[in-house]
Here is the input.
Amino acid sequence: MDYHPKHPQPFSFSEALKLDPATITEEIARLQNSLKHLKQTQDELRPYLDDPELAQASRENEGVIASQEERISMLTMALVEKGVVASGGHYEVAQTTPAAPSAAAAPQQPSLPPSASLDDLAGTDDGGIVL
Here is the structure.
């Protein structure tokens, strides 16, 4: 399967396929938490959008939200491609909104693919995985 994201992502779909299911679901949970806070911030900014700086911050947040939602979709597709059942079982992925699937598992210590190191997990602006 070939996937071309609309937004810049820290990893490709083929790299996501190399991750084990636990790492994928942990990253989905982390992204969902980030999205929850970003959307809450957007709600708090809404009354003050007449301020140019706050309006710019809101626009930037919208871009981050779109990118993170797309990343969740990529990771969910990786789980499906790997043959992990999308509903029920240990790696359940539930729909919270039409664009943002969620992971049922709470974040745990990340597992690395055989070719990755702990250094690969550090260094992203949003705290996510880097391949």
Notes: The radius of gyration is 16 Å. Residues 94-124 have pLDDT under 50 and may be disordered. Residues 15 and 131 are 7 Å apart (CA to CA). The beta strands are 93-97, 100-103.
